[in-house]
Amino acid sequence: MDGNGRWAQARNLKRADGHRAGAEAIRPVIERLGEYGVGVLTLFGFSTENWGRPRHEVEAILRLGGEFIDRYLDDFDRHGVQLRHLGELDALPRGLRARVRRAVERTRRNDRMIVNFAFNYGGRADIVAAVRRLIAEGTTPEEITEEAIASRLATGDLPEPDLLIRTGGERRLSNFLLWQSAYAEYYFTETFWPDFNLACVDEALAEFSKRQRRFGLVPGEAADGEGPHRGAGDGEPA
Ligand code: IPE
Ligand code: MG
Asked: What is the CATH number of the domain that holds 50?
């Protein structure tokens, strides 16, 4: 959810005001995606790198996280939204940690839509944690497969993202769902996150629906082989 700071700057407001406006933008987007039948949404709210921002900004973002839960938890719960958290919870302030835990616990049986809040999340850290889990489980080298790693990521039980929306004009992944986004369709928009409204959601989904997804295959042609050749030395690259 990028562009909060520039949104504020353009209005002579403080960056924290931009983050507040960004938080306001979230709920309508979730509702719209729910109407489309989107089953899983992951919002990148705070990265492991964002700790390096000025302290007052970090504090403002963390505070907004807690306020957001206080304000919307009932609402999300009523609408069947299951809230989850991706990232390292332990490093967050105690009050926020408790709120996140409460929100996750309270909504865990909801099944209309899963909304992951990536907060203190990093894609590389996610992969490292998955590998550590495998090692702790005593996994042998042969047992380390793509599936074994994928299932131990923070999103282990969820499908891979189909569409990745990046607001605020940046054209990079910034350590978001690195592994999981291998075959995601990327959608870039100049729109700053606080301005990302329902029409923007519609536009992103319309664009997505025009994409032809091949997953490295030739469309319309059945596979002759038995699947990917990994290091066999006789396969053409995908
Ligand atoms: C994204 O907005 C929000 C967070 C990273 C928390 P930015 O704060 O990155 O906004 P810009 O990029 O400075 O406009
Ligand atoms: Mg930014």
From this structure: 3.40.1180.10
Radius of gyration, CA atoms only, the chain: 19
Domain encompassing residue 9: 4-212
Catalytic residues: 2, 50
Does residue 235 fall inside a structural domain? no
Q: What is the pTM of this model?
A: 0.92
- With 0-12 / 13-18 / 19 or more C-beta atoms within 10 angstroms meaning exposed / middle / buried, residue 172 is exposed
Number of structural domains found in the chain = 1
Is residue 86 within 8 Å of residue 116, measured between CB atoms?
Answer: yes
Given a cut of 90, is residue 220 above it in pLDDT? no
Identify the residues whose C-beta falls under 6 Å from ligand 1: 1-6, 46, 50, 61, 168
- Please calculate the CA angle 90-144-180 and round it to the nearest 5 degrees: 55
Condensed to tens digits (0 to 9), the pLDDT of residues 89-117 reads 999 999 999 999 999 999 999 999 999 99
In a domain, 233, yes or no: no
Asked whether residue 220 is domain-assigned, the answer is no
Mutation probe of ligand 1 site: the residue of 2, 17, 19, 59 with most atoms within 8 A of C-beta: 2
